[in-house]
Amino acid sequence: MIDFDEIKLKLQSSLSPKRFLHTLGVVETAEKLAEIHNVDKEKAVISAFLHDCAKDIPESMQIRFCKEFHIRLDEFMKKNIALCHSFLGAEIAKREYGIKDEEILNAIRFHTTGRKNMTKLEKLIYLADYIEPNRKYFEGLKTAREYAKKDLDKAMILVLTNTIEYIKKKNGILHPLTLEALEYLKSEKGEFVNW
Ligand SMILES: [Fe+2]
Ligand SMILES: [Fe+2]
Q1: Cα–Cα distance, 122 to 127 (Å, whole number)
Q2: What's the burial of 116, exposed, middle or buried (CB within 10 Å: 0-12/13-18/19+)?
Q3: What CATH number does residue 85 fall under?
Q4: Exposure winner among 110, 150, 161, 178, fewest CB in 10 A?
Q5: Nearest-CA neighbor of 24 among 159, 129, 140?
Q6: What's the CA-to-centroid distance between 188 and ligand 2, angstroms?
Q7: How far is the CA of 112 from the centre of ligand 1 (A)?
Q8: Is-above-0.90 flag for pTM?
Q9: How far is the centre of ligand 2, averaged over its atoms, from the C-alpha of 157 (Å)?
Q10: Is 194 inside a domain boundary?
Q11: Which pLDDT tens digit goes with each residue over 122-174?
């Protein structure tokens, strides 16, 4: 039996107040999306709670933990350590929070980069992270919120496209998994007729 209060308390002590608030927003959104899209609500809520559990660990410690837990840092993660918090987060969810469900762990693991052939739960967490109510306004947010309620794939195509554009514009590090996620969805869904 998952003790949500215990998870919440533990998280509150390991996240900054701002990140904790963001997390609560992701939980709220994930719960709503799970209801709409018929996804296991408990899995959605746990994944949402834990998705950023490693994000406030200082970077040098994140690198150390990745080594210790045998998480391979690829060249992209090495150049942008922020990319590794989701992979490390999955490992910490397993070790510190006792989560064994691979579906939940993968939703945490791929919430930053995405990947091809994502499960519904993975898409839901990726989107909830992006659209949660505490996010400050940015272009495309409103449309992403609308799409997420109606069609997870359509919302993912929009959000991945915007994210890739944003990263390219600021000359950031774009992980190939993100490109693969978009290409896969586009080839799977084909062109949308009624956008
Ligand atoms: Fe994150
Ligand atoms: Fe997040």
Answers
A1: 9
A2: middle
A3: 1.10.3210.10
A4: 150
A5: 129
A6: 27
A7: 6
A8: yes
A9: 19
A10: no
A11: 999 999 999 999 999 888 999 999 999 999 999 999 999 999 999 999 999 99
